[in-house]
């Protein structure tokens, strides 16, 4: 029973309140209990005053108590609201910190792609954006307000015991039934079903398409403005329909609730009235009991369940994710040092499919990459080129087969140490809203290395090292796609200067102009001369410069050799090369200089 209670989302929510901020958490509870008790105290003070008037006693003490209670009732409400808002923000921060740690903690990335975790991940990421319910700072206030009412109702019931034992029981049962009936009707739950969440997500997505700058160009170009607005309003209408349907579920339980409440109150007030008429209940006590009998009604309806569900859902989601993400993103950890210098790579019988995917990306891949050499990997879209780079970074482990680096199984090496030996430029490289210096060397590097890496990437005149690469900061600036790519290249080249022995370049020049590409690629080759380089590219002008080229198809290497060897072979590489060659010829720029684009 206790275990079941502790497993409930509501219980977890209350546990997090004090953990998020002990002082605010304690203050929140104290204020809650005091505020809850005040209406009952006020009723007792009123009865005391009436009695004092009847008996001709001094009125100072009862009036003082009434005044104090009244003032406290007025003052404590805004104080409690302020405490709730602050505490709610701390709870948000606590959950955000926990989620951030759970996300970045595992050495792998499988936990971020696991479909079984995606629903919790969505709730945990979005709970404070106000799309699926009020943000946490408001929710904590709603919960506070509802709990104050609940405590107020219970305090009134306790006082009502002074009249007769059954009256508070009947009233508490009747008013509690309103919660039970409404909860059973599923109103709160039905407002938050997977279908409602999906409708919410679609509506939000369409809305973001309309208002975010990213999509602005193509929306206009393809004449999609009206389509987006229509889509948004349709999805939102569907969302409202679902929510309205959920609200209508309330109708019948509401009638039942009213019936129960009317009967229970009728009974208690009939008992109070007849006791007063019979002279068994003097006026001062009647005043108190009549007030508290009304006060018990504070238990009713309210938004407690709704507010609690909203506030507790992200807490429960984060607490489920914390233990689930670690194993989903886990990688067995080795303890061998990762060595130094250029890396030799040997792939033997490599098989790999993504978690929850049926398709094998690699199906017995064999490949050796000598230390200090450069290898270009080509193949059709989806052939597995980026996946190979991710496996070499050890973001996933192969299903079977081995990846050997310098003769050691990659799994036997210390993961963090290995990653310091790898530098990579991925297609979706990181753009940090930080100064250029931090974008090139996030973990820090001597200024001379940063400048040299920027020069190698053809980005030495982009901006001052301390210029923030983001707009909206006053001191910031944004870069073009190609300029950003140069920064990402500089980051990898800087890592080489810091000792990385393997460089993975996944379409590193895709966004560069032809002239820039030709010039930069020579410099990249020089800068990576002493390390092992794997270049993934569809641009054969770049690929041909590698020592060897491998063609990936159906999860295996189907051709391997130098540009000349593969051209002479007349196979896949030759076909792809010739196809591209038909579209490009040697370009001559305005200064008469010729650039070899193939
Ligand atoms: N995170 C993922 N989860 C499931 N499947 C994935 C994931 N990433 C890639 N895939 C699948 O794995 C296969 C190989 O993808 P990969 O990105 O390695 O191809 P690629 O050769 O780099 O393609 P491209 O030339 O388009 O960049 C594809 O079929 C892709 O759909």
List keywords for this structure.
alpha/beta, Rossmann fold, six-stranded mixed β-sheet, four-stranded antiparallel β-sheet, 10% strand, elongated
Concise structural overview:
The chain is 59% helix and 10% strand.
Commentary on this structure:
- The chain has 598 residues and is an alpha/beta fold.
- Among the domains are: 2-162 and 304-328; 341-421 and 539-584, P-loop containing nucleotide triphosphate hydrolases (Rossmann fold, 3-Layer(aba) Sandwich).
- Helices cover 59% and strands 10% of the residues.
- The strands form three sheets. The chain has a six-stranded mixed β-sheet with strand order 6-7-8-3-9-10.
- The chain starts with a helix and ends with a strand.
- Adenosine-5'-triphosphate binds at residues 113, 354, 357, 361, 379, 381-387.
């Amino acid at each position: 029973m206790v275990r079941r209670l502790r497993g409930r989302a509501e219980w977890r929510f209350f546990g997090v309140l004090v953990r998020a901020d002990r002082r605010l958490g304690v203050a929140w509870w104290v204020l809650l209990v005091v505020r809850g008790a005040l209406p009952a105290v006020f009723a007792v003070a009123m009865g005391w005053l009436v009695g004092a008037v009847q008996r001709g006693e001094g009125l100072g003490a009862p009036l003082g108590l009434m005044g104090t209670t009244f003032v406290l009732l007025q003052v404590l409400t805004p104080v409690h609201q302020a405490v709730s808002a602050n505490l709610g923000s701390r709870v948000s921060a606590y959950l955000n910190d926990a989620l951030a740690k759970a996300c970045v903690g595992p050495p792998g990335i499988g936990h971020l792609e696991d479909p079984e975790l995606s629903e919790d991940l969505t709730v945990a990421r979005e709970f404070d954006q106000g799309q699926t319910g009020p943000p946490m700072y408001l929710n904590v206030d709603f919960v506070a307000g509802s709990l104050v009412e609940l405590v107020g109702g219970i305090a009134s019931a306790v006082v009502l015991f002074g009249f007769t034992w059954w009256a508070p029981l009947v009233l508490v049962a009747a008013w509690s039934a309103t919660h039970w009936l409404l909860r059973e009707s599923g109103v709160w739950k039905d407002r938050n079903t997977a279908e409602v969440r999906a409708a919410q997500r679609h509506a939000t997505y369409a809305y973001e398409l309309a208002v975010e700058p990213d999509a602005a160009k193509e929306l206009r170009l393809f004449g999609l403005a009206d389509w987006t607005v229509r889509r948004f309003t349709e999805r939102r209408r569907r969302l409202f329909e679902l929510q309205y349907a959920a609200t209508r579920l309330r109708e019948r339980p509401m009638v039942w609730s009213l019936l129960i409440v009317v009967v229970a109150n009728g009974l208690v007030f009939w008992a109070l009235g007849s006791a007063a008429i019979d002279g068994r209940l003097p006026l001062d006590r009647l005043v108190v009991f009549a007030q508290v009998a009304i006060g018990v009604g504070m238990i009713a309806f309210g938004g407690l369940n709704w507010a609690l569900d909203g506030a507790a859902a992200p807490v429960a989601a984060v607490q489920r994710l914390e233990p689930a993400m670690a194993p989903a993103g886990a990688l067995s950890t080795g303890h061998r040092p990762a060595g130094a210098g250029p890396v030799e790579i040997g792939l033997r019988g490599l098989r790999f499919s993504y978690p929850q995917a049926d398709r094998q990306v690699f199906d017995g891949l064999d490949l050796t990459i000598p230390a200090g050499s450069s290898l270009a990997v080509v193949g059709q879209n989806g052939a597995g080129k980026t996946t190979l780079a991710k496996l070499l970074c050890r973001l996933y482990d192969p299903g079977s087969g081995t990846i050997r680096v310098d003769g050691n199984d990659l799994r036997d090496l210390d993961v963090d140490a290995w990653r310091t030996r790898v530098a990579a430029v991925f297609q979706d490289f990181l753009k940090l809203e930080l100064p250029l210096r931090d974008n090139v060397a996030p973990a820090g590097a001597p200024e001379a290395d940063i400048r040299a890496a920027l020069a190698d990437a053809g980005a030495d005149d982009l901006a001052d090292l301390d210029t923030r690469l983001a707009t909206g900061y006053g001191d910031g600036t944004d870069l073009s796609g190609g300029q950003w790519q140069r920064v990402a290249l500089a980051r990898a080249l800087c890592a080489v200067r810091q000792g990385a022995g393997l460089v993975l370049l996944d379409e590193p020049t895709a966004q560069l102009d032809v002239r820039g590409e030709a010039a930069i690629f020579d410099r990249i080759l020089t800068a990576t001369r002493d390390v092992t380089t794997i270049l993934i590219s569809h641009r054969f002008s770049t690929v041909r410069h590698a020592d060897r080229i491998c063609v990936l198809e159906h999860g295996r290497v189907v051709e391997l050799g130098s540009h000349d060897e593969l051209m002479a072979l007349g196979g896949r590489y030759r076909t792809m090369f010739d196809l591209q060659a038909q579209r490009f010829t040697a370009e001559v720029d305005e200064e008469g200089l010729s650039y070899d684009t193939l």
